[in-house]
Amino acid sequence: MKLAKQVISEELARFEIHFRESVKSRVALLDRIMQYIVKRKGKQLRPMFVLLSARLGGTINESTYRAASLVELLHTATLVHDDVVDDSLERRGFFSINALWKNKIAVLVGDYLLTKGLLLSLNNKDHRVLEILSEAVKLMSEGELLQMEKSRKLNLDESVYYEIINGKTASLLASACSVGACTTFDNEDDIEQMRLFGEKVGMAFQIKDDLFDYGSADVGKPTGNDIKEKKLTLPLIYTLNNCSPELRRKLIYIIKNENQEPEKVRFVIDAVAQAGGIRYATEKMFGYRDEALSILHRFPASEVRDALEELVRYTTDRNY
Ligand code: 2DE
Ligand code: MG
Ligand code: MG
Ligand code: MG
Protein backbone atom coordinates (compact mmCIF):
# COMPACT_ATOMS: atom_id res chain seq x y z
CA MET A 1 0.00 0.00 0.00
CA LYS A 2 3.05 2.21 -0.42
CA LEU A 3 1.74 4.50 -3.13
CA ALA A 4 -1.69 4.90 -1.53
CA LYS A 5 -0.15 5.82 1.81
CA GLN A 6 2.25 8.22 0.15
CA VAL A 7 -0.37 9.98 -1.98
CA ILE A 8 -2.60 10.73 1.02
CA SER A 9 -0.07 10.67 3.87
CA GLU A 10 -0.98 14.11 5.25
CA GLU A 11 -4.67 13.45 4.86
CA LEU A 12 -4.39 10.11 6.66
CA ALA A 13 -2.60 11.74 9.56
CA ARG A 14 -5.33 14.38 9.79
CA PHE A 15 -7.99 11.70 9.57
CA GLU A 16 -6.45 9.85 12.52
CA ILE A 17 -6.63 12.93 14.72
CA HIS A 18 -10.21 13.49 13.59
CA PHE A 19 -11.11 9.87 14.33
CA ARG A 20 -9.55 9.84 17.79
CA GLU A 21 -11.38 13.05 18.67
CA SER A 22 -14.65 11.53 17.53
CA VAL A 23 -14.58 8.60 19.98
CA LYS A 24 -13.86 10.52 23.19
CA SER A 25 -16.28 9.83 26.01
CA ARG A 26 -16.84 11.08 29.55
CA VAL A 27 -17.52 7.54 30.72
CA ALA A 28 -14.21 6.11 31.91
CA LEU A 29 -15.00 2.51 30.96
CA LEU A 30 -15.97 3.54 27.46
CA ASP A 31 -12.89 5.69 27.11
CA ARG A 32 -10.69 2.76 28.13
CA ILE A 33 -12.31 0.50 25.57
CA MET A 34 -11.98 3.19 22.89
CA GLN A 35 -8.27 3.48 23.64
CA TYR A 36 -7.97 -0.27 23.27
CA ILE A 37 -9.75 -0.08 19.91
CA VAL A 38 -7.72 2.88 18.62
CA LYS A 39 -4.44 1.22 19.59
CA ARG A 40 -5.32 -1.96 17.72
CA LYS A 41 -6.59 -0.21 14.64
CA GLY A 42 -6.72 -2.25 11.50
CA LYS A 43 -5.39 -1.49 8.06
CA GLN A 44 -7.73 1.49 7.68
CA LEU A 45 -8.59 0.44 4.18
CA ARG A 46 -12.03 2.02 4.27
CA PRO A 47 -10.89 5.52 5.24
CA MET A 48 -8.21 5.21 2.56
CA PHE A 49 -10.90 4.39 0.00
CA VAL A 50 -12.93 7.42 1.17
CA LEU A 51 -9.95 9.76 0.96
CA LEU A 52 -8.66 8.49 -2.38
CA SER A 53 -12.12 8.45 -3.97
CA ALA A 54 -12.48 12.07 -2.91
CA ARG A 55 -9.06 12.96 -4.27
CA LEU A 56 -9.95 11.45 -7.61
CA GLY A 57 -12.66 14.11 -7.93
CA GLY A 58 -10.90 17.12 -6.44
CA THR A 59 -9.54 18.49 -3.19
CA ILE A 60 -10.22 16.80 0.13
CA ASN A 61 -12.24 19.02 2.47
CA GLU A 62 -13.70 18.94 5.97
CA SER A 63 -16.73 16.93 4.90
CA THR A 64 -14.40 14.30 3.41
CA TYR A 65 -12.71 13.88 6.80
CA ARG A 66 -16.06 13.57 8.51
CA ALA A 67 -17.15 10.99 5.96
CA ALA A 68 -13.94 8.99 6.51
CA SER A 69 -14.44 9.09 10.29
CA LEU A 70 -18.06 8.04 9.97
CA VAL A 71 -17.11 5.11 7.75
CA GLU A 72 -14.41 3.97 10.18
CA LEU A 73 -16.76 4.39 13.17
CA LEU A 74 -19.42 2.29 11.47
CA HIS A 75 -16.91 -0.29 10.39
CA THR A 76 -15.57 -0.58 13.94
CA ALA A 77 -19.13 -0.86 15.29
CA THR A 78 -19.94 -3.68 12.90
CA LEU A 79 -16.78 -5.59 13.84
CA VAL A 80 -17.50 -5.28 17.57
CA HIS A 81 -21.03 -6.58 16.96
CA ASP A 82 -19.83 -9.19 14.49
CA ASP A 83 -17.54 -10.78 17.06
CA VAL A 84 -20.48 -11.03 19.46
CA VAL A 85 -22.67 -12.56 16.78
CA ASP A 86 -19.92 -14.98 15.71
CA ASP A 87 -18.72 -15.74 19.26
CA SER A 88 -15.26 -14.83 18.06
CA LEU A 89 -12.62 -14.19 20.71
CA GLU A 90 -9.93 -12.81 18.45
CA ARG A 91 -9.72 -9.76 16.23
CA ARG A 92 -6.67 -8.38 14.45
CA GLY A 93 -4.43 -10.74 16.41
CA PHE A 94 -5.69 -9.51 19.79
CA PHE A 95 -8.58 -10.33 22.08
CA SER A 96 -11.93 -9.11 20.79
CA ILE A 97 -14.00 -6.68 22.87
CA ASN A 98 -16.45 -9.45 23.83
CA ALA A 99 -13.53 -11.65 24.90
CA LEU A 100 -12.27 -9.01 27.31
CA TRP A 101 -15.45 -7.26 28.44
CA LYS A 102 -18.18 -9.80 27.58
CA ASN A 103 -21.14 -9.53 25.23
CA LYS A 104 -23.27 -7.05 27.17
CA ILE A 105 -20.58 -4.41 27.10
CA ALA A 106 -19.56 -5.20 23.51
CA VAL A 107 -23.12 -4.69 22.24
CA LEU A 108 -23.33 -1.29 23.94
CA VAL A 109 -19.90 -0.26 22.67
CA GLY A 110 -21.05 -1.08 19.12
CA ASP A 111 -24.21 0.98 19.63
CA TYR A 112 -22.14 3.85 20.94
CA LEU A 113 -19.81 3.81 17.93
CA LEU A 114 -22.73 3.62 15.53
CA THR A 115 -24.56 6.60 17.02
CA LYS A 116 -21.38 8.63 17.49
CA GLY A 117 -20.81 8.23 13.77
CA LEU A 118 -24.35 9.11 12.75
CA LEU A 119 -24.36 12.19 15.00
CA LEU A 120 -21.07 13.37 13.56
CA SER A 121 -22.71 13.66 10.14
CA LEU A 122 -26.04 14.89 11.42
CA ASN A 123 -24.49 17.70 13.48
CA ASN A 124 -22.68 18.90 10.40
CA LYS A 125 -25.70 18.53 8.13
CA ASP A 126 -23.91 16.06 5.85
CA HIS A 127 -27.31 14.67 4.95
CA ARG A 128 -26.32 12.85 1.82
CA VAL A 129 -23.41 11.10 3.52
CA LEU A 130 -25.71 10.18 6.39
CA GLU A 131 -28.31 8.76 4.03
CA ILE A 132 -25.81 6.66 2.08
CA LEU A 133 -24.23 5.22 5.21
CA SER A 134 -27.48 4.61 7.08
CA GLU A 135 -28.58 2.59 4.07
CA ALA A 136 -25.31 0.63 4.24
CA VAL A 137 -25.85 -0.23 7.93
CA LYS A 138 -29.34 -1.45 7.07
CA LEU A 139 -27.96 -3.62 4.25
CA MET A 140 -25.25 -5.00 6.54
CA SER A 141 -27.76 -5.99 9.19
CA GLU A 142 -29.93 -7.63 6.54
CA GLY A 143 -26.90 -9.43 5.09
CA GLU A 144 -25.99 -10.79 8.52
CA LEU A 145 -29.53 -11.99 9.15
CA LEU A 146 -29.79 -13.56 5.70
CA GLN A 147 -26.54 -15.37 6.46
CA MET A 148 -27.99 -16.71 9.70
CA GLU A 149 -31.20 -17.80 8.10
CA LYS A 150 -29.37 -19.62 5.31
CA SER A 151 -26.78 -21.20 7.56
CA ARG A 152 -29.53 -22.78 9.62
CA LYS A 153 -30.88 -24.37 6.47
CA LEU A 154 -27.40 -25.18 5.13
CA ASN A 155 -28.34 -23.42 1.92
CA LEU A 156 -25.86 -24.12 -0.85
CA ASP A 157 -26.93 -21.65 -3.44
CA GLU A 158 -24.02 -19.69 -4.88
CA SER A 159 -26.25 -16.75 -5.78
CA VAL A 160 -27.44 -16.47 -2.17
CA TYR A 161 -23.80 -16.37 -1.08
CA TYR A 162 -23.20 -13.34 -3.33
CA GLU A 163 -26.32 -11.68 -1.96
CA ILE A 164 -25.06 -12.19 1.59
CA ILE A 165 -21.56 -10.81 1.02
CA ASN A 166 -22.96 -7.95 -0.98
CA GLY A 167 -25.00 -6.93 2.05
CA LYS A 168 -22.62 -7.62 4.89
CA THR A 169 -19.40 -6.35 3.30
CA ALA A 170 -19.64 -4.85 -0.19
CA SER A 171 -22.32 -2.33 0.82
CA LEU A 172 -19.93 -0.57 3.21
CA LEU A 173 -17.07 -0.39 0.72
CA ALA A 174 -19.47 0.80 -1.98
CA SER A 175 -20.66 3.51 0.41
CA ALA A 176 -17.11 4.42 1.41
CA CYS A 177 -16.22 5.15 -2.21
CA SER A 178 -19.46 6.90 -2.99
CA VAL A 179 -19.40 9.19 0.08
CA GLY A 180 -15.78 10.06 -0.64
CA ALA A 181 -16.69 10.86 -4.23
CA CYS A 182 -19.76 12.82 -3.07
CA THR A 183 -17.58 15.35 -1.27
CA THR A 184 -15.63 16.36 -4.40
CA PHE A 185 -17.26 15.18 -7.66
CA ASP A 186 -20.19 17.13 -9.01
CA ASN A 187 -21.18 14.70 -11.70
CA GLU A 188 -23.71 12.15 -10.43
CA ASP A 189 -22.60 9.55 -12.93
CA ASP A 190 -19.02 9.66 -11.59
CA ILE A 191 -20.31 9.19 -8.04
CA GLU A 192 -22.33 6.16 -9.18
CA GLN A 193 -19.30 4.71 -10.94
CA MET A 194 -17.29 5.04 -7.75
CA ARG A 195 -20.06 3.34 -5.78
CA LEU A 196 -20.04 0.45 -8.21
CA PHE A 197 -16.25 0.31 -8.08
CA GLY A 198 -16.37 0.02 -4.27
CA GLU A 199 -19.02 -2.67 -4.47
CA LYS A 200 -16.83 -4.86 -6.69
CA VAL A 201 -13.84 -4.32 -4.39
CA GLY A 202 -16.02 -5.29 -1.44
CA MET A 203 -17.11 -8.53 -3.08
CA ALA A 204 -13.47 -9.46 -3.77
CA PHE A 205 -12.55 -8.43 -0.22
CA GLN A 206 -15.08 -10.75 1.42
CA ILE A 207 -14.23 -13.70 -0.82
CA LYS A 208 -10.61 -13.19 0.27
CA ASP A 209 -11.72 -13.10 3.93
CA ASP A 210 -13.65 -16.31 3.43
CA LEU A 211 -10.61 -17.90 1.81
CA PHE A 212 -8.53 -17.01 4.88
CA ASP A 213 -10.82 -19.24 6.91
CA TYR A 214 -9.59 -22.17 4.80
CA GLY A 215 -5.96 -21.08 4.64
CA SER A 216 -2.96 -21.43 6.84
CA ALA A 217 -1.85 -17.78 6.59
CA ASP A 218 -1.73 -16.21 10.03
CA VAL A 219 -4.21 -13.40 9.67
CA GLY A 220 -4.86 -12.70 13.34
CA LYS A 221 -8.14 -14.56 13.06
CA PRO A 222 -8.60 -18.24 13.72
CA THR A 223 -9.22 -20.53 10.73
CA GLY A 224 -12.09 -22.99 10.55
CA ASN A 225 -14.40 -20.57 12.38
CA ASP A 226 -16.89 -20.40 9.55
CA ILE A 227 -17.23 -24.19 9.55
CA LYS A 228 -17.74 -24.19 13.31
CA GLU A 229 -20.56 -21.70 12.78
CA LYS A 230 -22.04 -23.74 9.92
CA LYS A 231 -21.35 -20.78 7.71
CA LEU A 232 -21.16 -21.97 4.14
CA THR A 233 -18.83 -19.78 2.11
CA LEU A 234 -17.80 -20.00 -1.53
CA PRO A 235 -14.99 -22.60 -1.27
CA LEU A 236 -17.30 -25.00 0.55
CA ILE A 237 -20.41 -24.18 -1.51
CA TYR A 238 -18.49 -24.98 -4.68
CA THR A 239 -17.16 -28.21 -3.19
CA LEU A 240 -20.56 -29.42 -2.03
CA ASN A 241 -22.09 -28.66 -5.41
CA ASN A 242 -19.31 -30.38 -7.35
CA CYS A 243 -18.12 -33.39 -5.37
CA SER A 244 -19.23 -37.00 -5.19
CA PRO A 245 -22.51 -37.74 -3.38
CA GLU A 246 -20.63 -39.69 -0.68
CA LEU A 247 -18.25 -36.87 0.09
CA ARG A 248 -21.11 -34.43 0.04
CA ARG A 249 -23.06 -36.49 2.56
CA LYS A 250 -20.02 -36.81 4.78
CA LEU A 251 -19.24 -33.09 4.65
CA ILE A 252 -22.81 -32.15 5.45
CA TYR A 253 -22.85 -34.59 8.35
CA ILE A 254 -19.70 -33.03 9.80
CA ILE A 255 -20.97 -29.49 9.36
CA LYS A 256 -24.26 -30.36 11.03
CA ASN A 257 -23.08 -32.60 13.83
CA GLU A 258 -19.34 -32.56 14.35
CA ASN A 259 -18.43 -28.98 13.55
CA GLN A 260 -16.70 -28.36 16.89
CA GLU A 261 -14.17 -31.18 16.54
CA PRO A 262 -10.78 -29.90 15.33
CA GLU A 263 -9.94 -33.06 13.30
CA LYS A 264 -13.29 -32.92 11.54
CA VAL A 265 -12.90 -29.24 10.75
CA ARG A 266 -9.44 -30.12 9.38
CA PHE A 267 -11.05 -32.82 7.24
CA VAL A 268 -13.48 -30.30 5.72
CA ILE A 269 -10.69 -27.81 5.02
CA ASP A 270 -8.58 -30.49 3.30
CA ALA A 271 -11.51 -31.82 1.29
CA VAL A 272 -12.33 -28.33 0.05
CA ALA A 273 -8.74 -27.78 -1.07
CA GLN A 274 -8.71 -31.19 -2.79
CA ALA A 275 -11.97 -30.55 -4.62
CA GLY A 276 -10.77 -27.26 -6.09
CA GLY A 277 -12.96 -25.06 -3.88
CA ILE A 278 -10.05 -22.76 -3.06
CA ARG A 279 -9.09 -22.42 -6.71
CA TYR A 280 -12.68 -21.69 -7.75
CA ALA A 281 -13.23 -19.02 -5.09
CA THR A 282 -9.88 -17.43 -5.95
CA GLU A 283 -10.90 -17.17 -9.60
CA LYS A 284 -14.20 -15.56 -8.67
CA MET A 285 -12.35 -13.12 -6.43
CA PHE A 286 -10.06 -12.11 -9.28
CA GLY A 287 -13.15 -11.70 -11.48
CA TYR A 288 -14.54 -9.06 -9.10
CA ARG A 289 -11.12 -7.44 -8.84
CA ASP A 290 -10.95 -7.10 -12.62
CA GLU A 291 -14.45 -5.66 -12.79
CA ALA A 292 -13.43 -3.09 -10.18
CA LEU A 293 -10.31 -2.19 -12.14
CA SER A 294 -12.16 -1.81 -15.40
CA ILE A 295 -14.58 0.65 -13.78
CA LEU A 296 -11.66 2.54 -12.28
CA HIS A 297 -9.96 2.75 -15.66
CA ARG A 298 -12.88 4.77 -17.03
CA PHE A 299 -11.40 7.68 -15.08
CA PRO A 300 -8.39 9.49 -16.55
CA ALA A 301 -4.97 8.17 -15.57
CA SER A 302 -3.42 9.84 -12.52
CA GLU A 303 -1.34 9.11 -9.47
CA VAL A 304 -4.52 8.92 -7.38
CA ARG A 305 -6.01 6.37 -9.77
CA ASP A 306 -2.81 4.32 -9.53
CA ALA A 307 -3.06 4.47 -5.75
CA LEU A 308 -6.64 3.18 -5.86
CA GLU A 309 -5.55 0.40 -8.20
CA GLU A 310 -2.81 -0.52 -5.74
CA LEU A 311 -5.39 -0.72 -2.93
CA VAL A 312 -7.62 -2.98 -5.02
CA ARG A 313 -4.72 -5.30 -5.75
CA TYR A 314 -3.81 -5.27 -2.10
CA THR A 315 -7.27 -6.49 -1.07
CA THR A 316 -6.89 -9.61 -3.20
CA ASP A 317 -3.16 -10.24 -2.77
CA ARG A 318 -2.80 -9.59 0.98
CA ASN A 319 -1.68 -12.33 3.30
CA TYR A 320 -3.31 -10.92 6.39
C1 2DE B 1 -17.79 -9.65 8.29
O1 2DE B 1 -18.08 -11.00 8.23
C2 2DE B 1 -19.03 -8.87 8.14
C3 2DE B 1 -19.41 -8.02 9.05
C4 2DE B 1 -20.68 -7.32 9.03
C5 2DE B 1 -21.20 -7.24 10.40
C6 2DE B 1 -22.44 -6.48 10.47
C7 2DE B 1 -23.27 -6.46 11.49
C8 2DE B 1 -24.51 -5.67 11.32
P1 2DE B 1 -17.17 -12.09 8.94
P2 2DE B 1 -14.65 -11.69 10.16
C9 2DE B 1 -23.02 -7.26 12.71
C10 2DE B 1 -24.94 -4.71 12.37
C11 2DE B 1 -23.99 -3.70 12.81
C12 2DE B 1 -24.38 -2.54 13.40
C13 2DE B 1 -25.79 -2.10 13.51
C14 2DE B 1 -23.35 -1.64 13.98
O2 2DE B 1 -16.77 -13.11 7.94
O3 2DE B 1 -14.07 -12.91 9.49
O4 2DE B 1 -17.82 -12.55 10.18
O5 2DE B 1 -13.73 -10.49 10.08
O6 2DE B 1 -15.89 -11.24 9.28
O7 2DE B 1 -15.14 -11.96 11.54
MG1 MG C 1 -16.92 -12.69 12.13
MG1 MG D 1 -19.77 -12.57 10.88
MG1 MG E 1 -14.63 -14.18 7.98
From TrEMBL:
This is Octaprenyl-diphosphate synthase. GO terms for molecular function: metal ion binding; prenyltransferase activity. Its cofactor is Mg(2+). GO terms for biological process: isoprenoid biosynthetic process. The keyword Transferase applies. It comes from the Bacteria. The keyword Iron-sulfur does not apply. Keywords: Magnesium, Metal-binding, Transferase. Belongs to the FPP/GGPP synthase family. InterPro entries: Isoprenoid_synthase_dom_sf, Polyprenyl_synt, Polyprenyl_synt_CS. PANTHER family: ALL TRANS-POLYPRENYL-DIPHOSPHATE SYNTHASE PDSS1, GERANYLGERANYL PYROPHOSPHATE SYNTHASE.
